[in-house]
Design goal:
By secondary structure, the protein is of the alpha/beta class. It folds into three domains: 3-197, Rossmann fold, CATH 3.40.50.300; 205-342, 3-Layer(aba) Sandwich (Rossmann fold); 349-425. Helix content is 45%, strand content 15%. It has 19 helices and 15 strands. The strands form three sheets. A seven-stranded parallel beta sheet has the order 3-4-2-5-6-1-7, with helices on both faces. Strand 5, helix 7 (155-161) and strand 6 (166-171) form a beta-alpha-beta unit. The radius of gyration is 23 Å and the shape is globular.
């Protein structure tokens, strides 16, 4: 079989990029693989082509509901039998897809890990022959990764349900510790998994940090970058309030821009994203929620107006720049005062075990009233009317992720479906998590203060050697 011909037949490309071919050959030999490749390097081809060359079903597990439709739409346009099943579907459409799946349809099926909580789905999957399992955003497996998803810790169980198929784990970032966690949680050994690491170097990205103080200096720096580096750009903010304030300052200077944040309703967020994707020279002010599904080639600059919480988050966000391989700039505007924002985030993101216990007992005893009176009532019982205490929101989010609850207070249908997980009841575990997040922020702060090569620092953080000279690094 000549893989280049198959690549051209199905996807219109004449040649493979980087290590794509080596990974695909590994999977076709029914050997497990882990692929760590930069954002925009074509990771989806690694499982899509083997799926089309294999006789049975390929399952793709991903936490990114927003991306599934785009992936499936792209495949169906190429006459490839693909589908997704997730919470965005209505009951009628979901049952139709279950029926199709049970009757042997689909070559590629995208699902979230939470789908395996549904017994009807597990029953159907158990009867299908699975030739390949692809785990996208595999760093979510690790509790020390930057986007831990508890359901990912059940992947070993999911693989058993599927008959332990050939498996590929994919991510753009993973420290050595996270790589080991991924392999362990898949129920495999390091000897069983071939590692394909393309590094994280993006030679066309110019990394720079501008130390400054206060909003006036920040505004001046943003306006200067916009003026000097024409093209599409993203300006990331940690706080919606600060995003809105900067938006007003830019509006007064007649600088056109879009806004994307959590206070917008879903239709408006989709409108903003579509406008950014389809237009030229688009500027968007956004929180870190803006990024899923953003595969725009001509983003010439990414500005972080406030310091991110970790190197992982920072690297993932700057990776949206320069996907057309033309020179692009990634600028961190470093105001030491902004560290307080991330320190507050860490504080509210890490309630103590006693707080989780009180929240669980409150739901157990008073869930009808909580559904009736809403989030404010729930928070008042836990935080005594402190409106700036966001631990209650953290608890609800983690209870959903750990499958403690289903539904939501907003929809007035929140229900308890399991007990309190051991991890959320363990103060030792929670203190380890808190320590880990503090260390990540500390290493991000060190990056901001570097006087040596920034790319070398990022490579070292991810356990890689930085061998090439940085033609685009501001402090080589």
């Amino acid at each position: 079989m000549q893989l280049e011909k198959q690549l051209n037949k199905y996807f219109g490309f004449k040649t493979f990029r980087g290590k794509q071919k080596a990974v695909i050959e590994c999977l076709l030999k029914e050997k497990h693989a882990m692929a760590i490749m930069p954002t925009g390097s074509g990771k989806s081809i690694l499982y899509q082509l083997p799926a089309l060359l294999s006789p049975e079903l390929t399952i793709v597990i991903s936490p990114l509901i927003a991306l599934m439709k785009d992936q499936v739409d792209g495949l169906t346009k190429r006459a490839i039998d693909a589908a997704f099943i997730n919470s965005s579907l209505g009951k009628k459409e979901r049952e139709k897809r279950y029926e199709n799946l049970a009757h042997g349809e689909y070559k590629i099926l995208y699902v979230t890990p939470e789908r395996f909580r549904k017994s009807e789905f597990v029953e159907i999957i158990h009867k299908r022959k699975i030739s390949l399992l692809a785990v996208d955003e595999a760093h979510c497996i690790s509790q020390w990764g930057h986007d831990f998803r508890p359901d990912y810790t059940r992947l070993k169980e999911f693989r058993r349900i599927m008959g332990n198929p050939t498996t590929i784990a994919l991510t753009s970032t993973a420290t050595p510790e996270v790589q080991k966690d991924i392999i362990k949680e898949l129920g495999l050994t390091e000897e069983q998994v071939s590692l394909f690491h393309e590094g994280i170097d993006r030679p066309n990205l110019w990394l720079e940090v501008q130390p400054l103080w206060g909003e006036d200096e920040k505004l001046a720096a943003i306006c200067k970058i916009i003026k000097e580096r024409p093209g599409s750009g993203i300006i990331y903010f940690s706080l919606i309030k600060d995003l809105k304030d900067m938006s007003e300052l830019l509006r007064r200077r007649k600088i056109k821009h879009l806004k994307y944040h959590g206070d917008l309703d879903t239709p408006e967020r989709k409108h903003v994203q579509n406008k950014f994707m389809q237009g030229k020279n688009q500027l968007v002010l956004a929180t870190n929620a803006f990024g899923m599904g953003i595969d725009k080639e001509d983003i010439r600059f990414v500005i972080h107006a406030q310091i991110p919480g970790s190197i992982e988050s920072y690297y993932q966000e700057i990776g949206r720049a320069g996907r057309d391989e033309k020179e692009s700039t990634c600028t961190l505007l470093y105001d030491e005062q902004d560290l307080n924002i991330q320190m507050e985030f860490i504080k509210w993101n890490n309630p103590e075990a006693e707080f989780y216990y009180r929240a669980y007992r409150l739901l157990l005893s008073d869930i009808e009233r909580i559904n009736g009176e809403g989030l404010d009532y729930f928070k008042e019982q836990l935080t005594y009317k402190n409106r700036h205490d966001y631990r209650a929101e953290t608890v609800l989010s983690l209870f959903e992720r750990w499958a403690v609850t289903d539904g939501s207070i907003e929809q007035k249908n929140l229900v308890l479906i399991s007990g309190l997980p051991d991890q959320l009841a363990s103060q030792d575990f929670l203190e380890s998590k808190l320590k880990n997040e503090r260390e990540k922020l500390y290493k991000m702060m060190l990056y901001a203060k570097l006087e040596t090569c920034r790319k070398a620092y990022i490579h070292q953080y991810f356990g890689l050697e930085h061998q090439s000279k940085c033609m685009t690094c501001d402090n080589d």
